[in-house]
Amino acid sequence: MSTTTKVAHIDQKSANKPPFLTVGQLTPEVLKAWEQSCNQFFLHRKTKDEDKVRKVAWGMQDPLIQDWYLNNQDRLDKLAFKEKMLVSTQGQHPFSKWAIDVQSQNTLLCGTVSHLTDIYLLYYLESHMNADLAANYYTEGISEKDLHEWIEKVCLLDERRLCYLACFDTTLCADRTHSNADKKTVVGNNTSRLVEQSTSNTTSTNSGKTFTRLPTLSDTEHQLLRDNNGCFKC
Fold first, then answer.
1. Are 78 and 39 in contact (CB under 8 A)?
2. How far apart are CA 45 and CA 199, in angstroms?
């Protein structure tokens, strides 16, 4: 199963229209382009500082980011747009690696209103994890509230998910190999049968003929052939 993830991009009809951040992997380049498009929109519409966040936040189309914004809308709308915000989703990355990246980004936000406490960081990771992992997570019913212990339990759950994906890919690859081998065997067997059938038919046809030996010509018959320039070979 492929783990390739499409990179998000910016969709903006014109400079005076709010930009849209499409669903996909968020890279530093994409986030920078998003910031520049937003600032261009603010400039053309002469948007007030207190209105900037709510004017563009609805343009983030990823359902997980929308959910995060809605759950924190009152707090986020009060932020100045230049304040850095934590925006990241797990996608197909291992949860352990992604959780470390999110914690590192949150550390850089220390001293700002966007910095998340441990409990809010837990909520953030919970609402932005991989969809398949989230389904297993809610089924498992993990209720740990200590951030580090919670991360350890979710990491174990995600390792099971990744192991299943690896086994699925291996099984799928093996099935394809066996399928191709079976097709070659069938073709080979059919070819052998055709050759055997053709050989059998030829043999049967030849064996079905009766060879009759002609009697020796008499003296009169020899003379008749000589008089008429006949052939003695046939």
1. no
2. 87
For range 106-118, the mean pLDDT: 81
Q: How far apart are CA 128 and CA 88, in angstroms?
A: 7
Distances (CA, A) of 135 to 43, 55, 119, 130, 167: 42, 32, 21, 9, 19
Count of beta carbons in the 10 Å neighbourhood of residue 92:
15
Taking alpha carbons only, the member of 85, 149, 158 closest to residue 116 is: 85
> pLDDT category, 47, cuts 50, 70, 90?
very high
Q: Count the Cβ atoms, other than its own, within 10 Å of residue 193.
A: 10
Residue 21 one-letter amino acid:
L
Q: What is the pTM of this model?
A: 0.45
How remote is the C-alpha of 77 from its chain's centroid? 36
What's the pLDDT tens digit per position in 67-104?
Answer: 888 888 888 888 777 666 677 889 889 999 999 989 98
Q: How far apart are CA 128 and CA 76, in angstroms?
A: 17
Tell me if 71 sits within 8 A of 9, measured CB to CB: no
**Greater confidence, 27 or 14?**
14
Cα–Cα distance measured from residue 37 to residue 39, given in angstroms and rounded to the nearest whole number: 5
Secondary structure element (H or E) that encloses residue 125, with its range: helix 118-128
What is the token pair recorded at 190?
Answer: 């059919």
Rounded CA separation 137/157 (Å): 7
Given pLDDT bands bounded at 50, 70 and 90, which one contains residue 183?
A: low
